[in-house]
Amino acid sequence: MPSKSLGGGSGAVAASTHAACARFRGTDPLVVGRTRRQLAVDLGFPDDSGYIPAARWTRAMTFEHLVRDTLFAGEVATTTVGRAGLDRPTKVVTVNAHVHVDETAELLAAAHERAVEEGAATLVHGLAVPFAGFEDSVATEVKPDFAVVAAGQGRTSWLIVGDAKDYERVRSRIDDTRLLKGFLQVALGAESAAAWSRLPGGMAVHSHGVLAVPRNSFLQPEALVEALHDHRAEVRMRVAERRREAAETRYLPGTDVAPFVAHLRATFDPATCITCPLFSYCRHELRTSPNPADLLVEIGVPAELRSQVAGLVTGGEAAARAPASVVAQVRATLDGVGRETGQLRVDGAGRPGTVDMVLAKADAAALGVHGIALRRHTEHGQEDWAVTVFDEPQSVETRRRVMRLLGQEITAAMAESASRGAYAVHVVVPDAVTADVLVSIADNLAGVELSRLRWERDQELGREPLTFGGEPARVPTALHPVERTAVSFLLEDDRARALTLRAPVVDLRAVLAQHVVAGGPAFSSLRLDYLVAWAETLTKGPVKPRELEDDIEGSQHTPGARLTGRRSDAVHRALTGGRSGDPDPERYTALVTEELAYKRDVLERTLVALATVRDSSLRDVHHTIEADAQAVWRRRLDLHASDLVRFGRTYRHWRNSLVPVIESDGRCRRQLAALGNPQAAADMAADAGVREVVSATVVSTGPLVLDVGSRRLGAGARIVLLHVNGDACVERPGTAMTPLKGSVKFSGMAIGPLAGVDDEPRRFVWTPDNVPALAPGDRLVVADFSWYCDLKGNKALSVGRPAADDMSAPKPDCGAYSYADAPEEHQYCCRPHEDAEADWSDRLAERRDKGELNPQVWPPVFDEDAFEVTPEGAPVADLAAMSQDEAPDDLTLDDLE
């Protein structure tokens, strides 16, 4: 009997992402008898988006190897048992089932006997269990990476199913959506085990599951335990859905699959379907469709908005309330020329005091860096790029060198800018992923430094430095001052991400997106090289959208930190030599340098495109907000006071005090966007959920009569004119801006009350004190004046500025000896890390003496800091020593992630 392909655990989980698509459900491996990756090949559209780079596969295999290591297997098993609320095991045994069903059954029986007789826990890795509901079929098995068997009550045992996932920590944490997907895969293993007839008598599947994830960049694992009730319910629903779809299918095995797939209707979204192996097939179908409206599906226009812009693809017009951004996207796609939003520049990119940076990340390590390029902008122009290639991408020294080089440039930028009064410096990167890598490195090194300060205190008092788990610690060297400057600056950016008006690290892609709307899928604009190509159409002429999209997708280079799969392979082979070859340092350096050259070129093209946009009158507002905040940060850095604290570890009182700051920041951002960005204001006016900004049309000018496009503003309401025919009033010569202590005042704006007109419910006479030059038919965007401020007159508009985050920060009059001289008075402002960590070290030592910390206490105490520290002599990832085999062709990145 031929084997029935079920797609494994990942296939079932992926169904949760794409379950709304009839084509995805109808091409279940259970129906078509092959994986979707193979199906894509059979249809003539092989999938490359799920390709697993060799370095990424090596990392995954390295992590699985570490999970099986005797030291970590015992730790993972013990922690799992403790967090599941079970008794402490007498010992931990590790066994290998070699992905074989019969061997799995035998080892589980032995583990059950060991648990009930000896109270031992067993970590079984490499399991194979029949897919839930298909035990009597010849079908692909579910293959959990490991499971823990532990003693229950009486002569019973528990089976706790687990998976090993080498998820990257971004800014000290793992993305929740990844953890959800991982636990769904664990849940499928648990459901399959619970339904298996060969599960030993007296053994039950536990209600909780476990994920082994890296706790640091050395890939050393830790166990995350979570209840599976909801996950298992969803898995049961998805499995039942798969069986139902399979039973109702009309496909006959052995016949041509192409007509069958073609009749299944796809629910296409370029932003989410990219992870589906049939993405290229479905996109080609839309591209060759004779129906013009299918273009809207291809570029990802939401279904609820397609009717509003459908007229554009047939030569007509969009509906009046269609969002301006979507209209711009469709028009750009049709004529191949990007659309300007009308927003003028408020960013600091390319100006004196900024540092440009590009980075090539290694797939083999969470924080690995192949190379970086840096340059600084000064009063005399931009300096030359300084390119550095690292021979050991994943080493601690490489991470410190990245911070050292960046810190030197930030320090120089600060020294040059200090003479200009209130100032801010910026690091400019091509995309958010690059910023995430930098902040993650900074978080890593900050944790190491704080741990070092604690151990320094231990050594002072003659105590042995120990990790949180009680093992002898490997004490690192101290951060150099310029390294600390970079680390502290990037952690400031980490905290600043809660405040939308701040940008110590400038995401250049996001900046350009404020000014240009590209054609094609909005998802493609998340790549800077794609977006800048559309920005260049404003001066160079039109492009062919589909050809540009394909060229960018097929490029061997990327503008951001991550490499393409093929380029990653080439770099990895040159660095390690691969399975059958010697390393080639010269080729490695050349490949990394070439990659950095592409990233530099894209960044420079972006700055050239931005240079064609003039500065906004609101730029000074944005600069002042950032300068005030960075003044607080510099005091933290100078006094070593809370400058190494990431956002996720801010004190509770600090976080609570940030709530009104975050609220005022969001309000100010929306108000400034409504003032200065015509497209954003038009979108607000078209949004039924926005009450404060509305559209209007001029009926006559003597008197000034408006048709207001909303019932939210009535007679007696005061309004302020924001935009006329897509031009921002705040940018006009007659408008003056005056910065005040807590706000910014704009004079010269048209402000006044509305008065009703008989028999015309939405028509009003408007009498502003400052009468603007308007003509009948002009399209306006106006706002409720009370949304901005409560000033009594109609002469000026006030916008409140958000307060700086100065909680737990040195005050302007705090000095180097303020805390030492008056500790009680200054304990919440300028207490240095050196003192705070010494105190915490003493408290940990006291708890350890009382037996309140690992390994004495049960269940194990969870380390919320999760800092980058390793026990002395503990095994770490050695990626160069691992097998360089390529990933199996039937696996995709979805299987790993």
UniProtKB/TrEMBL annotation:
Highest taxon of the lineage: Bacteria
Region (Disordered): 546-569
Protein name: PD-(D/E)XK nuclease superfamily protein
